Amino acid sequence: MKLAIWGLLWMDVEREGSPERIIARCEQSGIETYLAYVNPMERCSLGMWPAVTYRATVFQAETRDLMTPLLKEASKQGVAVEPWLLPFESAPLVGETPERLAARSYQPAAMLGLGPDGRKADPSAAKKAGKRLCPTWAENRQRGIVILKDMIEHHGTQLAGIHMDCIRYGDVEMCWEDPCHCEACRKEYRNAFGKDVITAEELELPGFRYKFVEFRARCVRSLVEEMRDITRKAGLRLTMAARAQFFDYALPEGQDWPQWARDGLVDIVFAMNYSTDRSEHRGRVELHASLMKNKGKALHFDGVGKKSSIGENSTENLVTYARDALDAGADGICIYHYAALKDEDFAAVKTLNS
Ligand SMILES: [Zn+2]
Fold first, then answer.
1. Residue pLDDT, tens place only, 249-276
2. Which residues, listed in sequence order, are joined to residue 93 by a DSSP beta bridge?
3. Which of 188, 282, 318, 329 is deepest in the core (most CB within 10 A)?
């Protein structure tokens, strides 16, 4: 049985008192892999660690290195550690300005005065803009490479791998209704549709949808391919947190993870299932297992949520859902997230190995 856990490193250190104790608990609970979120920054609701929590030199933010002691203990205990890497959501890099980042973020047409009826920016459009960097920009994708090389330079020999998170567009809520009209997307629209501005009505046409998803998939995949080359040379595995709603979310956001697995681009797909409804959870993992049927050497781990934005699972359900997933064909289980587990949850997780 293969067992992994996602953790928010700074929060887990707050809970345990030291990075070493995270590793000790993983080891005692039969958890082989700890996937560490290391880049809280302004998205950190606690406000306790407004810094990057590993030895990075590419960010403007202060760094507090929790990784070095974590990795030292991990190599002693035989626990694999992979930091999350978020190309499109991380803290500003050295040399980046808020203005440039804003221009390279999701831009509703109305923000640019490009709406089909010439409407001006409205407050709701402004609210949606600039939340996430748009992967259509080569410059945004290149951030992933810069962060990756820096991670490898500082911790590479002790990492088990790199865990890609949010490796996709982040706009599925609005992409069909109000597609991005940033400069880079408009350039793609000119190639695909022969014009700068596209509408929700046009995106209902199958051919429009096909071309729209096609260029997005190409953009995201090109970054994964480059990261694959670099991690392979460094002797590291490349894994990912995958959207569980495959047809609704993953594909429109350019994240064709079963294809990436088949093509040898990723070593482990961790599907963020997290559902608190047993039949929904089971249905998803069955779909994922069938999508991953020809996955080559890649592994498929089902993500079981203890506590996530979707809701909370009891200790009993955590174990039941994990067993369901293995029964449905998953190669392993990954739990979300470390700090949400109580002592009894860790004890229950340990029984999964028996
Ligand atoms: Zn865009």
1. 999 999 999 999 999 999 999 999 999 9
2. 59
3. 318
Ligand 1 centre to CA of 103 (Å) is 9
| Overall number of domains in the chain | 1
Residue 252 maps to a domain = yes
Length of the chain: 354
- State the CB neighbour count (10 A cutoff) for residue 30: 16
Among candidate residues 303, 297, 293, the one with its CA nearest the CA of residue 329: 293
Query: Which tokens sit at 275?
Result: 């559902």
Angle (CA) 142-82-296 rounded to 5° is 85
Residue 115 lies in a domain: no
Question: Is the residue at 343 inside a domain?
Answer: yes
Going by C-alpha positions, the residue among 164, 131, 168, 132 that lies closest to residue 147 is 164
Tell how far the Cα of 186 is from the centroid of ligand 1, in angstroms.
7
Structural domain containing residue 69: 2-104+134-173+209-353
List, for residues 139-181, the tens digit of each pLDDT value.
Answer: 999 999 999 999 999 999 999 999 999 999 988 888 999 999 9
- Pairwise CA distance, residues 115 & 197, whole Å: 8
183 C-alpha vs ligand 1 centroid, how far in Å? 7
**Cα(261) to centroid(ligand 1), Å:** 26
CA of residue 299 to ligand 1 center, whole Å? 32
pTM assigned to the model:
0.94
Distance of CA 237 from the midpoint of ligand 1 (Å): 30
79 domain-assigned: yes
Please give the distance, rounded to the nearest whole angstrom, from the Cα atom of residue 181 to the centre of ligand 1: 6
Count of Cβ atoms closer than 10 Å to residue 230 Cβ: 16
C-alpha of residue 137 to centroid of ligand 1, in Å: 7
pLDDT digits (tens, 9 = 90+) for 4-63: 999 999 889 989 999 999 999 999 999 999 999 998 655 544 445 567 999 999 998 888
**Residue with token string 């949010």:** 166
